[in-house]
Design goal:
Layout: E1 9-13, H1 16-26, E2 30-33, E3 38-41, E4 47-52, E5 62-67, H2 71-80, E6 101-102, H3 103-106, E7 111-116, E8 122-127
Parallel strand pairs: 1-4, 5-8
Antiparallel strand pairs: 2-3, 3-4, 6-7, 7-8
């Protein structure tokens, strides 16, 4: 029934203006204001819908992962734009000085670094 539907995900933010600025100017994504929220264009034909909610509570899990070829270059570029990377104590290994969990070297997953949008939603860059 839905196998041909072009599905998309959505999440909430406290401020559409802040989200628009962050996702377009900091992350460099194409963002469209639909009048009801923001349509964010991701790689390929993928997109996500962001809408404002006055009682927004940030997700306590990663809502959006950005695969990258070079995690160090991605982290450095985001850091240069003022992005702060999260530190977590309950990971299977230690994060390095950049905030990257080096999962490939340890044999337990991708290299990954987490950060938050202005509404506190958790995002990541990762490299297999």
């Amino acid at each position: 029934m839905l196998q041909d539907s072009v599905a998309f995900s959505g999440f909430t933010v406290k401020s559409l203006d802040e989200a628009n600025d962050f996702y377009s100017n900091v992350l460099g994504l194409k963002v469209e204001d639909t009048g009801m929220g923001l349509r964010v264009h991701l790689g390929g034909s993928h997109q996500v819908f962001i809408y404002q909610k006055d009682t927004q509570v940030p997700a306590d899990y990663t809502i959006l992962n950005f695969p990258v070829d070079d995690i160090d270059a991605a982290v450095d570029a985001l850091d240069a734009k003022g992005v702060t990377f999260e530190r977590y104590a309950d990971l299977p290994g230690a994060q390095d000085e950049k905030g990257v969990l080096r999962g490939k070297q340890a044999g337990y997953g991708p290299d990954i670094a987490w950060f938050k949008d202005p509404s506190g939603n958790i995002l990541s860059v990762l490299s297999d």
